[in-house]
Predict the 3D structure of the following.
Amino acid sequence: MRKIFLVLTIVAMVIGGVFANSVADGDMPPADAGKLWSYMTITNPYTGWGFWPNHVGMYAGKSPHGAYLKVYANTLALKAAREGKPMPDGAMIVKENYGKDKKTLMAVTPMYRMKGFNPEGGDWYWAKYGADGSVMKSGKVEGCIQCHSVQKAKDWIFTPTE
Ligand code: HEC
């Protein structure tokens, strides 16, 4: 009897976890730049997500990204960032890169954690899109990986949460 109870409890926890996740971020897209773009602009538009902790709105960025940036994070990424925990499977950080006029959106560069996708690259899926969603780079992008690898100890993320 006790065993059944235990099993039921575990089943309920798993279903609860999956459900909570699906409510927060929806069904996550596969490693496909087109599907990722439609996920992050139509299914679960990133402009409705929260900003990276303590980096609300637009601020001046460093090379090679835009002169000005906005950094958004999905529910999973925000929770981990706020708790100082590693980014879980499904975490997404989307950066908008603006020109010097602070108005022209030059590119959108997400990083999307997919467990098992690329262990030696921190399991991040990288992409670079034009403002219209055209795919400029995607997948295991060498440039992104190489530069961000100096932040390996911080989950490959440059921007601090404080
Ligand atoms: C030469 C170094 C360099 C390269 C190449 C690079 N980045 Fe970054 N990236 C940075 C720095 C530095 C920041 C911190 C933001 C800032 O101040 O500009 C950053 C920030 C980010 C962020 C916000 C989260 C964080 O790490 O702070 C994302 C998302 C991101 N980059 C994605 C990409 C993608 C996708 C590519 C490849 C298409 C890429 N980056 C290529 C240096 C780089």
In short: Residues 96 and 108 are 5 Å apart (CA to CA). The two ends are 49 Å apart (CA to CA). The pocket of heme C is lined by residues 61-62, 64-65, 69, 71, 93, 95, 109-111, 126-128, 137, 141, 143-144, 147-148, 157-159 (CB under 6 Å).
